[in-house]
Design brief:
About 40% of the residues lie in helices and about 20% in strands. By secondary structure, the protein is an alpha+beta fold. Strands 1, 4, 5, 6, 7, 8, 9, 10, 11 and 12 form a ten-stranded antiparallel sheet that branches. Strands 2-3 form a two-stranded antiparallel sheet. A hairpin with a 4-residue loop joins strand 7 and strand 8. The protein is rod-shaped.
Length: about 280
């Protein structure tokens, strides 16, 4: 009897051990599956958040790209290098680190947006400054018929210094102010004919001579691009044209260098003539 009970006890114990082992194995399997399920749900949640963040970043990127296109049109090819772009992440290196990658993309666009904002502000500032610097042609479509410097006078044949340039009109005779300022002279001067002189502050002055008709008078405030006269042949001249001069600190400079300036030329002007206050004064 003792041996029979012992064998039964051993059999029951072995069965119980097998059941316990099977239960433990099942528990380990379910625990592993549960952890995998939690990880999958967490990854799915992270993926949804990343997709949401990427949609927002894509929208922001489209807005920044549009602003960049507008800036590139304003800047031209020469100044595109003024927009240094940050390096973006190459890709997802850790499949469990979606949120970190999203933060890197967001940070990169933040840097780009800051730089775009800076360039826009700088461009706007220089554009405002350029309004008070002679920077456009006084005649649309005209061509230079006589340049700045020493030349043979067309009337007496003697060498004389030409303080400006002569611009012959083509399709339009409308004379425009090349910068905003105040008219300090509008009337007849011997040799110059009907002359308009505009002071643009900071030592800049422009002269428009030989006009047929004047549309401004002394003391008038004029804006850049405003029509101030009609080109003609009054005074000492052989043919209809506009004699145009640019002066800085009472010294004539070559107007050819001031016929088509962009806001990015302001730095070059400041470097050559000094930094000036471009705020308009009454």
């Amino acid at each position: 009897l003792h041996r029979r009970y012992a064998r039964r006890f051993v059999s029951v114990g072995a069965g119980a051990a097998l059941l316990l082992l099977a239960f433990f194995a099942r528990w380990l399997y379910l625990e592993h599956q549960y952890v995998r399920l939690v990880n999958v749900r967490l990854m799915r949640k992270q993926m949804e958040q990343v997709e949401k963040d990427l949609r927002m970043e894509r929208k922001k990127a489209e807005e920044v790209e549009k602003r960049l296109q507008v800036l590139e049109e304003k800047l031209g090819k020469k100044e595109k290098r003024s927009l240094p772009l940050p390096s973006l992440p190459d890709g997802i290196t850790d499949s469990y680190n979606f949120s970190q990658w999203g933060k890197e993309v967001h940070g990169a666009w933040e840097i780009l947006e800051e730089r775009v904002n800076y360039v826009e502000e700088e461009f706007s500032r220089r554009q405002q400054q350029l309004e008070f610097i002679p920077s456009i042609s006084p005649l649309e479509g005209g061509y230079i018929s006589s340049d700045f410097g020493w030349r043979k006078d067309p009337l007496n044949g003697k060498m004389s210094f030409h303080r400006g340039i002569d611009i012959s009109p083509t399709f339009s005779q409308a004379v425009r102010a090349t910068a905003s300022g105040v008219v300090i002279h509008a009337g007849w001067i011997p040799g110059m004919g009907n002359l308009v002189v505009i002071s643009h502050q900071n030592g800049w002055r422009t002269y428009y001579a030989h006009n047929a008709v004047l549309y401004v008078q002394k003391g008038d405030q004029v804006k850049q691009g405003q029509v101030i006269a009609q080109a003609g042949r009054t005074g000492k001249t052989t043919a209809p044209h506009l004699h145009y001069e640019v002066h800085f600190q009472n010294r004539p400079v070559n107007p050819r260098h001031f016929l088509s300036l962009s806001p990015w030329d302001v730095r070059r002007i400041e470097k050559k003539y000094g930094v000036m206050d471009y705020a308009q004064k009454d």
